[in-house]
Structure formats: structure tokens, C-alpha cells
Amino acid sequence: MNRLWPSRKVGMLVLLVAFALVAAACSSGGTATTTTTSTTAAPAATTTTAPPATTTTTEPKFEKPYGGEAVVAQDQEPPTLNPFVPGGDNFVVSIIGQGYFAGVQEIDGFTLELVPELVTELPTVSNGGVTVNDDGSMTVKYQIRDEAVWDDGTPISGDDFQFTLDIILDPDLPTDKTTYDTIVDTKVGPKTFEYTLSAPTVLYELLFGTIIPKHAVEGTDFVADWNEKMWPSAGPFKFDEWAKGEFVHLVKNDNYWKTDPETGQKLPYLDGVTFKFIPETEAGLNAFKAREVDIINPPPATESIEQLQALESEGARVEVLAGPIWEHLNFQFGPGRLERNENSCNENLNMRKAVAHTIDKQLIVDEILAGQVEPLNSYVDAFSPTLSQEAWSQYDFNVDKAKEFYGMAVEEMGKDCSVVFSTTSNNDARVKLSELFVDMFGKAGIPYENQLEDSQIFFGETLDNGKWDLGEWAWVGSPGLSGLIGIHDVFDPEGPPPDGSNFYRWGTPDSSVQDDATARFAEIRDEMNATVDDKELVALINEAENILADNVVIFPLYSRLDPGAVWEDTIGGFKHNPTSAGITWNMEEWYRVDLAG
């Protein structure tokens, strides 16, 4: 199962599964295609009269031009190019690596879902690619694409998958062996690979995110020889040069095997891509303004975004998307909350509903994010948007409803319930949030107080001991079912700290709320971790989302911004991807607009 650990370093709680993010990120990208088949029967003909002759004119397909290069601004320089060694999990390693890495899966920038890359389809129970065996083990089968080759023309084979596994499991190498070390058997074919895990786990969907070419790497020093250069490419580009402190340059892979689904043309279009290292945000923005770089993915400050948007009249296109980091309000259900607020009434559902109807999420988004994204109505959106039921949309901003529910809570609790809000004092957005709450709770007639703390204290003593009343922090989502299943651990009534991650203490042994909902959620969480059937998992995820929403265990607010910008009059085919795949996920489809005839 996925584990979720608090991170003090970045001042937020980070979901995951660092492994899952890295494994999913280290593959190059491409746009998924969908074939639609109609099952509607055609009406029977009722006449024998021949229809009049028609003349159709087929519009010629737009042929995208070949040649030229793109320059991408990057605010970090990689510590290594090897994704399997220490430092290889740095985000910039995967951003650059999208040019030459390839694996089982990638993240589609349009659907934000996992899609197949080196394999013909992602294995599931439904399609027969995953089998739970009678002895409790689980077998996963990959069918490798016939056309997939390395840049020297060598076919990508099951031997490469096996060699990758051997590298990962080598006890003398500093590789992350999580989940791989539960593989008990493998079968290898020219274009197939099959492995058996000792027990079922949904983490299988993120294994083999980057494959290593056996014919090139075998017999070399895996750490020393593949640190500042890269092995043969399975992606659209090849590694060319790393000028330390300046840039990494990639060149076209003439043996790349993908074609453009729109035009049928062979990919990639560009001759090369340069990643230019510009560590200062303002310097990067200035380089973009001066057209020294074609593409930029700056930190998500509204000031930076507005500077980029001001360039849209000059040919820039700016995509500001909801990123995977999602902020949420939450209630503390354990006894520690009473040390913060003796009039806390979090155990009362009507009190929690009163708070939900008090919050004006649109105002929060407008004030903190300059209205750049929509408010969040479910945590599921940060993981797998297509599965989201928007379950928190039932709680509209409604002062009258807030007053009504608050009145019922006071009557049921027999005291004047109040709210004390705590979060990090050294985060500007959260400080602004606390200021907005003063007026919101005042309008609803709910006694309210801010008690913010330094992040070291909040993410230390306060979090660990449950010493808050109403709190706020962020989790990080990831595509696929594994991350979405993992997030439910943080609400598991059977998982209180320090061994578990249920910092909210909802339904835990010391919780003020233990009812049918908490009991059922505990069962759901166990059932999630006992199956790999995708249909069963989706049904359980839907049920879990509704329980958390109906019982107002948390209250999702918004996803942090993730901006990406391109000079669209220069580079075509760019589509920002706010997931761990990043802005380079479909770099094989980029082309120079200014070369079009």
C-alpha cells in the first residue's frame, strides 16, 4: 500500500510514494488516441432508387514542418541524469528525461490519466493482463510494441525489462527496490515480459516506468558511467551534451517509432531541444520575454503568471492549470483539539456542515489565486479527474444555511460552539486565507479565532499530537489508482499516529466520532488494499468519496496553480501537463511554426 509522510522541508504534507511519482514521470510522452465504434444499427433501405452522385472534396491534412530547435527554461540543474541512483528522483531529471526515457506507462496531458507507452495496453484484471493466482500471488503480463526500438535500431525486448529488474534488485546498487523486491518469478520473450508478485498490490501499475537497454549498459559501471551521459534512447530525442551550469542539449532520434496521430507523420519534428538553466525566477521570466527561451514553467506565483499573461497579445500562450497539490480544511476529532479550543464541537455533524456552508471558496480562489482556477469540489480531482463525483458541491456558500446548522449544533451540544483556526504562519496564501475567514465566520455568526504557527511547530508538535481545532494544509495527488487508493490511508480509522497517517483522528480509538460511517470506511480501506480489480476499486473509491463528503471529514478548497507558457507563434504542439510528467510530456509533437510554408 502507499504510505504518506509529512514533509517539514517544503512546509506542506506531501502525499506519496516518492517512488510512484518518479516511476510514472520517467517516460516520454505522446498523445493518446481513441477509436470510437458506433453500435447503432443502420435503418433498412426502403427504396431501390439510386441516390444522386455526390462529389466530396477532401481537405489536405496540415503537414507539420520538420527542423529547428526549442529552448526550455529550467530553474534547476539535475544532480545526475540517471533516474535510478540518489538524486535521480529530482523533478528536473524526469523533465529532461522525457526526451529519451520510455517505460510501461506515461501520463496523458489531456486526460491526466496513465496511458500505455512501450506496451500495447496497460494490464488490468478486466483485460486479462493481471491475474490473481490461487496461491495468493499476482501475475502481470506486458505485450511490448512490435515497433518499439532503441535509437541504434535494437528492438526493445523482454530481456531489457528483465535487465532493468536485475539492476534495480542488485544489492550493491543504491536503487529504490520498493515493490520490485516482492517479484518472485519472471518470464521473458522477444516482445513479452511477465512477472509474479508475492501478493496483489495496485502499485504494479507504476512499475517499470523507465526501461534500461541491456545491450548497451550490461558490463558497465551503472553508477559511474551513466551519471553525466545517458544510455541509448527509447524516446524522441537522444542525449547530446551537458554543459554544467549552462544547459543540456538533446538531438533528434531518427529511429523513434511513434507517429503523429493527427497527421500520420513520423515523430519527432524538431532537430533538437535545449534545456537552459536559469535558477532565478525573474531572470527566467525576462529570458522568456526576450524570446531567449521558447517555453517556461515558472513557480506558481500570481505575479509571475500575470507577467506571462501580459505577453499573450504578442504571441505567447499561457496555460494556468490546477496542479496536483491540493489545499483542504480539516477537523480534529481527537482530544488534543480541546487544548486548542475548549468549545470545539467538531464531533457534531451539523457544526461541520455549518463550517462548510460558511466558506466562500470562490472568494478564496479570487483573492489568493487571482481567479485563475476553479474551486475544488473533491480530492479525487487531484488524482484521477474522470473518477471524481464532485461530492463536496453539495456545500454551497450559504450564510442562511450556515446559521441554521450552527443553531442546531449549539442546541445539540448544549454550549456555544466556536472555531479556532490553525495553519502555517509563514505561508502568505494561508495567512491570507485566515484573514478571509474572519469575515466569513462573522457573517455566519460563528465565534472564530485565528491561531497560526510557524511551520516547524505546526507540522511538528501540533500535527503529531492533534492539537488543533480547524486546520489547513496540502496533500499531493498523482495519476493512477495507486495514489488515489493511498490517500485513503490518511482517513483510516485503524491507522492513528504514530504508526498510521490519520492525523485527523477520525474514527480512531481516541476519536470523538466513532459510528457506522467510520466503521464502513475502515472496511473500505481494507477492501481497497485487498483487490487489484479496477472495477471493484473504482466502486470503493466512489463510496469512500461520498462518505468523506457526507460526513464533512475534510473540506477541499483549491488546487495550487501550475503555469506553463509557450511562444505559440514560434512553437506549435505544446500542451502543458500539470502532473509529474511536466511540460515536456509530448515534446515529440512540438514543431517550429515559423518553418511552416
Verbal overview:
- The protein has 597 residues and is α+β, with helices and mostly antiparallel strands.
- The longest helix is centred in the C-terminal third of the chain and has 17 residues, at 428-444.
- The chain is built from 15 helices and 20 strands.
- The chain has helices spanning 18-25, 91-97, 158-169, 214-217, 281-289, 302-309, 337-340, 349-358, 361-369, 399-413, 428-444, 455-465, 481-487, 516-528, 534-550, and strands spanning 5-7, 12-14, 69-74, 105-107, 114-116, 130-132, 138-143, 183-189, 192-197, 237-243, 247-252, 272-277, 295-296, 316-331, 419-422, 448-450, 470-476, 554-567, 571-572, 591-592.
Read across the widest sheet, the strand sequence of neighbours is 13-18-14-17-15-16
Q: Describe the biggest sheet?
A: 6 strands, mixed
Tally of helical runs: 15
Radius of gyration: 26 Å
Helix content: 25-40%
Fraction in beta strands: 15-25%
List low-pLDDT spans: 1-58
Structure class: alpha+beta
Principal-axis shape:
globular
Offer a concise description of the structure.
The protein has 15 helices and 20 strands. With about 600 residues, it is α+β, with helices and mostly antiparallel strands. The chain starts with a strand and ends in a 5-residue tail after the last strand.
Question: What descriptive keywords fit this protein?
Answer:
597 residues; alpha+beta; six-stranded mixed β-sheet; 15 helices; 25% helix; globular
Write the layout of secondary structure elements.
Layout (H helix, E strand, L loop, with lengths): L4 E3 L4 E3 L3 H8 L43 E6 L16 H7 L7 E3 L6 E3 L13 E3 L5 E6 L14 H12 L13 E7 L2 E6 L16 H4 L19 E7 L3 E6 L19 E6 L3 H9 L5 E2 L5 H8 L6 E16 L5 H4 L8 H10 L2 H9 L29 H15 L5 E4 L5 H17 L3 E3 L4 H11 L4 E7 L4 H7 L28 H13 L5 H17 L3 E14 L3 E2 L18 E2 L5
Parallel strand pairs: 3-12, 15-16, 15-17
Antiparallel strand pairs: 1-2, 4-5, 6-7, 7-9, 8-9, 10-11, 11-12, 13-18, 14-17, 14-18, 19-20
